[in-house]
Amino acid sequence: MYNLLKGKRGIIFGALDSKSIAWITAERAVEEGASIVLTNAPVAMRMGTINELAEKTGAQVIPCDATNVEDLEELIDSAVKILGGKLDFVLHSIGMSVNVRKGLHYTEEDYDYTQKGWDVSALSFHKLMSVLYKKDAMNEWGSIIALTYMAAQRVFPDYNDMADNKAYLESIARSFGYFFGRDKKVRVNTISQSPTVTTAGSGVKGFGGFFAFAEKMSPLGNATALDCANYSITLFSDLTRKVTLQNLFHDGGFSNMGISDAIMDDFMESQHNEQNPS
After folding, report:
1. Could you give the residue ranges of the DSSP H alpha helices within 63-200?
2. Number of structural domains, the chain?
3. Structural domain containing residue 247
4. Fewer CB within 10 Å, N or C, the chain?
5. Percent of the chain with pLDDT over 90
6. Residue 3 falls within a domain, yes or no?
């Protein structure tokens, strides 16, 4: 431990279970000296085991529907009171696609489902920052992070409308981040994480195959949930004070790869087997 967050206060959104990036980030933040408040939507709290994390980290849990501005206002007011002062960091680690859950193909979206997923996955980030901004609830040089994925820039067919949501999320980070930086000296960034074995991530169709593909494509291999948590800690810390408005790829190098030897070897072996059936 490096005491990178000694004396700092923060809110962690989206800890569902011990596999989730938010859960591990919460553990690491406390290990580095922070005091935190945990929050998730009431339905997610019923599905997950967040109270176990609260006990482990000494954190209070405040239910909050991140699409509801009144809920967010109550959360921020309560967190500042509980933690004894303004916030130094916030992690937005929430996302949901009803279309994916219902098995609807991207070309056959239910637009009511699309709007709900967009509100939860992307617009909630604007609502959260708007409340933080208006309440002046962040300390100077504070840090706000949202988690995203490279499907915001490139086509991953089975990622469905979540790709659109992540693109919108990243745009919010840049646009709102400008005003937060100019007016409050607060940093806003997104982390574009590798495919990660979490309860949410594993629900995407074909996840296992793509996880293996990304592992072979990336020169350093996939970044784990713990890797992402550690990266988040550096962005919450004072060591990255001038990093803002960035979409930071945290993917073992995947985002800059065209092809790897391992993938090419697999392709050539497949071609050989097709041309020379046993």
Report:
1. 69-83, 98-101, 111-118, 124-134, 162-184
2. 1
3. 9-275
4. C
5. 87
6. no
